Amino acid sequence: MGSPPMTERWLDLAIIGAYLVAVTIFGARFGKGQKTLRDYFLGGKQAPWWAISLSIVAAETSTLTIIGTPALAFGSDLGFLQIAFGYLLARVVISLIFIPAYWRGEMFTAYELMRRRFGEKLRRVTASTFLVTRSLAEGVRVFAISLVVSVVLGTGELASIVIISLLTIFYTFHGGMAAVIWTDVVQMALYVSGALLSFWMILQQIPGGWEQVAAVALAEDKFRIFHFGFAPNMEFFSITYTFWAGLLGGCFLTTATHGTDQLVVQRLLSARSQAESRLALLSSWFVIFMQFALFLTIGVMLYVFHQQTGSLPPDPLDRLYPSFVWNYLPPVVSGIVIAAIIAAAMSNISAALNSLASATIVDIALPIFGDRLGNDQAQLRASKIATVAWGAVLIGIAFLARTWGSVLEAGLAIASVPLGALLGVFSLGVLTTRVSQNAALTGMAAGLAAVLYTTFRTPVAWTWYVVIGAVVTFSVGLAVSYLFPNRSQ
């Protein structure tokens, strides 16, 4: 069954177009009544825990998961799911250690904690690291959605990037964090529903249905989740998806992304109370685990489908899921599922824009130009300008990301390089009292150097990057504080 002519897809295109218009209008309406940075960057702390929980899930999955995870399962097995167990352990650590620290007084960003503990210099360094890393990682995510839009509309990748980005910038500019959270809730409901619908429809395309899928997958070990075994050698650490890499690497990665990265910390700070912040984080794991399992299983089903039909999978494999949806699912169904994939992308882009703008204004601009930014209205205006500026940056990075390989692994690898150093320095701030600002900066520099060396000079898999960076940063920072106990802040 091939793709119908574009003239016969008018209903699908109408569904996608209607969704894009509706979500843009819905998100923009949250701009009413905004008066302060608290309103724009924290949504006035009015969102309930369950909405924040779903928003965290939307941030954690994104289009990279939706189009990248099925491709991983298609080429291998369900081993990626091992990382989710590390995600759970990380949430417990963050709930016990980091969330209480963030709720000692009102904060707008994660990096204000660094200012309180160490000083302004480390705050600027950590905030700047976030700005560079997050913009690179989100640029990859913006490019990921262009793969979907270009399949559907037949537009070039650049045009696809610009269309989605401009619509997302519009409602994020007007609605701020409240728009991010509530559009996340709507969009997550849509893309999960779309995934469940496509799951059922894929089974209809496979002769024998689920029994055939299970028979082929079991015979070829496609349902394998755990890869145990431990050997302290380079070959072991070069395997990306093992149980130990998933448990330790996933734990360190998520502790960094959810405990020190403004993209998620901003959501935790937007809760009504510390208890609701913790509840939102812990409950999000159950949803994320089920999502990973769903999209990986879809990848296995697509493997069986292509094997049974003899059709060749698309190149690159990141086009696997959207290409199947558009070419094999019936009209209306394909329109709904494609709209769902676009929904995930827009929710992540909007969150990135708001978090990048908040770190830029609160951690960089206000300490330098505080008096010149004037009153609340002037600061609010500057925040919206920063949102637009970062939108332009993400579009530029997305265009460059076309040559970076698998979108899922490229996004995770880029994020993993500096996150270990950030986690290490935040741990020094929360768990120690003797480490000075200069000792922490020394540790952070050592951690970054260790991960960069690991990345470019060794075969070690990206799942270990955050572990290495965090351990080196914490160890060196603590050692320097003992070697130079009288070193000034």
Features:
globular, Sodium/glucose cotransporter, 489 residues, mainly alpha
In brief:
Helices cover 77% and strands 0% of the residues.
CATH superfamily: Sodium/glucose cotransporter
Low-confidence runs: none
Helix content: over 70%
Note the run of SSEs as H and E: HHHHHHHHHHHHHHHHHH
Q: How does the overall form come out from the CA principal axes?
A: globular
The main sheet comes to: none
Total count of domains: 1
Average of per-residue pLDDT values: 84
* Second-tier CATH architecture: Up-down Bundle
Distance between the termini: 68 Å
CATH topology: Sodium/glucose cotransporter
The assigned structural class equals: mainly alpha
Strand content: under 5%
What is the number of E strands?
A: 0
The count of helical stretches stands at 18
CATH class: Mainly Alpha
What topology does this entry show?
Layout: H1 10-28, H2 37-42, H3 49-75, H4 82-102, H5 112-117, H6 120-153, H7 157-205, H8 209-219, H9 234-237, H10 243-259, H11 262-269, H12 274-309, H13 320-328, H14 333-373, H15 376-400, H16 407-431, H17 437-457, H18 465-483
Describe this structure in words.
- The protein has 489 residues and is mainly alpha-helical.
- It has a single domain (6-406), classed as Up-down Bundle (Sodium/glucose cotransporter).
- Helix content is 77%, strand content 0%.
- The protein is built from 18 helices and no strands.
- The protein has helices at residues 10-28, 37-42, 49-75, 82-102, 112-117, 120-153, 157-205, 209-219, 234-237, 243-259, 262-269, 274-309, 320-328, 333-373, 376-400, 407-431, 437-457, 465-483.
- Helix 4 (82-102) runs antiparallel to helix 12 (274-309).
- The longest helix is centred in the middle third of the chain and has 49 residues, at 157-205.
- 56% of the residues are buried.
